[in-house]
Amino acid sequence: MPPMGESIMECTVLTRLKQAGDAITADDSVLEVATDKVDTEVPSPYSGVLNEWLVKEGDVVAIGSPVANFRVDDDINQEASGADPVTDIENSAFDAVAFLENDLQKAVQRTSEIDPSQEVIKSDADSNTFYSPLVLSIAREEKLSAQELASINGTGVENRVTKNDVISYLTERNTKREVAPVTTPSVKGSTEIIEMDRMRKMISSRMIESKRISAHVTSFIESDMTSVVKWREAVKNDFRKKSGDSITFTPILIEAVVKAIKDYPMINISVEGDNIVKKKDINIGMAVALPDGNLIVPVIHHADQYDLAGLARKVNELAKRARENKLKADDLAGGTYTVSNIGAFGNLMGTPIIVQPQVAIMAFGAIKKKPAVIETPQGDLLGIRSLMFISHSYDHRVVDGSLGGMFLKRVSDYLENYDAHRTLL
Q1: CA atoms within 13 A on the CB side of 71
Q2: How far is CA 156 from the centre of its chain?
Q3: 403 and 266 co-located in one domain
Q4: Secondary structure string (H, E, C) spanning 315-353
Q5: 242 shares a domain with 179
Q6: What is the pLDDT of residues 279-302, one digit of tens each?
Q7: Per-residue pLDDT tens for 227-266?
Q8: Same domain, residue pair 280 and 338
Q9: 183/185 Cα distance (integer angstroms)
């Protein structure tokens, strides 16, 4: 099982796309799997024949563990040239183990940082029961007793309890608590109990975890978008004719954020224990609403290396693949700062929750025409302007109000001073 992105240690096998005995070409998809972040397909790195599956549909598989026996066509060529395919396989295995050890050390570190007085569950090294750091963290957060955790049927390797097992148990327990009052005579009308799907459970868990980790503070500013609105209106039809793509406000907003990050690089950081990790890459996550109402955040990697036309194409591509459930694990990994265009839903402003392990997120509200005071050398005038609220949530552990406020103001300045004469193509 190949790496699936930052901090992902296991995934669930949804579908085996090939059968034993099938001939496979390199890059053919052989598995469909689900991670905490996305459902994705796993391609074969080589051409050859699938001899035997080592996993079943529904299995929870650790990253780096074997999933199939495979006869690689290149083995014959390697043997003829004197190469040692066994050594190559061993090297790949060592790479996978190193990847696992790195993530495991981080998970153990996070677990060890929990105050021992707050512990509800412990994994007993002297018994045959093993609970991963993630499972233990969820159990502590939800105040599960040792008896409750021991009663959960594990679906992982060697019947170990996985994160999904714990979430399913909690959902069933909470549903029972909700259903009971409905039968009492004092309740009027009717209710419908809807079980959360896997993605909604994951979103719920991540939002609660983010609020627990980060000291959220939100600042606001109202930005004059008149120049941006007029420029986009003037170029959008020509851009569509020449490129076949639309130019929405989102890439324009992302461009302003990227410029501001270059001016204030300490907003492009994360926290690991008592250390601040300063990121050199500018990878912008953009929140996308899915047709089922859930939310997903694909990432534009190296966003500072795109011009505006390139950003527009990338935004459209990621949004389209997100809504068609065609995102890959890499599309969701490595974000360093996130934006959300809540104005698309008619919202004026909001207080967005930070995407961990980032330290800030920005939400752009709806652009509305309003009467406003316009300052001119000849005096103040009253005019109609296109105005937009920008919300900036940041982690007050490492981002003070001065940095959070100046960064927000700089994004607004780039938008208000937009070059109305720039060319797009």
Answers
A1: 9
A2: 24
A3: yes
A4: HHHHHHHHHCCCCCHHHHCCCCEEEECHHHHCCCCCCCC
A5: no
A6: 999 999 999 988 877 889 999 999
A7: 999 999 999 999 999 999 999 999 999 999 999 999 999 9
A8: yes
A9: 6
